[in-house]
Write a structure and sequence with these properties.
Blueprint: H1 19-32, E1 41-42, H2 44-51, H3 55-67, E2 71-74, E3 78-81, H4 86-110, H5 113-131, H6 136-153, H7 156-165, H8 182-200, H9 204-242
Antiparallel strand pairs: 1-3, 2-3
Helix pairs in contact: 1-3, 2-3, 4-6, 4-7, 4-8, 4-9, 5-6, 5-8, 6-7, 8-9
Length: 243
Amino acid sequence: MSCGHSHMIPLPQVGEASQTGKLTDELAMAIHLGDLIPGTPLREIELADAHGVSRTIVRAALQRLEAQGLAEITLNKGARVKTWEGAAIADMIELHACLTSLAARHAAERASPAQIARMRQFADLLEHVAEDEGPAREFQHLRIGFARALFEAAGPALAERLRVAAPVAPHHSHALEDIRDGEGQMEAAKLARDVLRAIESGAADAASKAAERLIRRHAERSSIKAALKTAKPAAARSARTAA
């Protein structure tokens, strides 16, 4: 049961504080939190009106989302949230695991006390939400915050590349399935804590391995939960047919 308090605290900023940067981040967060699901049209006029910016700003933001693998733009058809399926999801997760592992290694070697404290803040809140079995959307928000804080701790040059090359959570239609229950949230929070402890100890190899486990377990649990969710309606249909 949730404690009733929102834990949607401000996240580390991604990119520059321009209108384009802010809109890109807002749309990326909407995708990662499941507010914009795969296949959703991203219409320039609607987005410009909703966010109070010009269509030029919207167009530039959509191009950045496309570069991050979160949107796809088709000539004469416009943009939509990208849908990842099959082998493409596996490849994206593999890339994210490798890059997050690299970020953790560098963070263990160079993170400042302030950067470690920022990571600890998100790790603490992840555990708090998990103990209350809070909303998946809230937990995902904090999971993204932890990832961003980790990227920041890896160093400015690497952080900039990581933010573009590795969206904070590999996005697909079942990306939140692993954290819809308390068990999944507790496991994810523990894995994040493992990463933090290794970084605090300056153990680069351990941090790298812990970060890879974090991503791969997310992918594994998402796949299992999605399969179970799909199997239940199918079983129910078979039962009705047999009856």
